[in-house]
Target: Enoyl-[acyl-carrier-protein] reductase [NADPH] FabL
Amino acid sequence: MTQKVALITGSSRGIGKATALRLAQEGYDIVINYARSKKSALETAEQIESFGRKALVVKANVGDTAKIKDMFAQIEEEFGRLDVFVNNAASGVQRPVMELEESHWDWTLNINSKALLFCAQEAAKLMERNGGGKIVSISSLGAIRYLENYTVVGVSKAALEALTRYLAVELAPKNIVVNAVSGGAVDTEALKHFPNREELLQEAKDKTPAGRMVEIDDMVNCVMFLLSDDSSMIRGQTIIVDGGISLLV
Ligand SMILES: NC(=O)c1ccc[n+]([C@@H]2O[C@H](COP(=O)([O-])OP(=O)(O)OC[C@H]3O[C@@H](n4cnc5c(N)ncnc54)[C@H](OP(=O)(O)O)[C@@H]3O)[C@@H](O)[C@H]2O)c1
Model:
């Protein structure tokens, strides 16, 4: 049996970490990527190793294309292959439109949108050596709806969803399947940066038609479905996991 390898960007915490652990339980060796949380990244690696899988920990700001190249060079050296790439890392500046500066735009778009293109290029080069692979990105409802203070992040996620469609077509001949999962509010550390966190959580609790908020595992379940062969005819789509909240006005 070939030992498959998965890279999950931003897997020191939150949805990325949960995805990395699930993939390790399914038998993948894991590349853990982080930008600042070294301790959490190393803890995630320990958990992965406790499942009997290998874990390569790579510090790389995915908003920096030189760091992306270095990360893939390390993956090539350590494993010589890549089968799954989960584009999960995200950051962003939460400000009203009139307070946004060029640096906020560049920071957010570089990490949330540009990274997908340049990681996908590198991932595709490794994946095609072994006959293909799967790419799933994580998006959010702000890509298609208004969310307060969310302008640059929403725009960056809209670009990510558009890029998902282009990658799906152009990487299909390499047998690489590309999709995205978009989520309603999930109570992770990411929400600490939202000025309206409490309000957002309360709204999600009160209004989600499914009767509860989206949890990390709901997102991971959908990612795992898109990484499975059961979904191989789904291409370039963004599947919304929000318990139905985006269906309301
Ligand atoms: N939470 C939500 O409500 C929600 C809803 C829908 C979609 N999402 C999406 O789900 C994904 C994960 O979100 P989360 O809530 O799990 O976030 P989180 O708990 O804040 O974790 C973010 C992860 O991304 C990493 N990261 C941040 N900037 C990075 C960079 N420049 N380079 C590499 N890694 C970087 C962080 O590592 P460091 O700590 O080392 O920086 C961390 O591992 C994101 O794409 C987010 O937009 C979240």
Q: What stands out?
A: Residues 102-129 form the longest helix (28 residues).
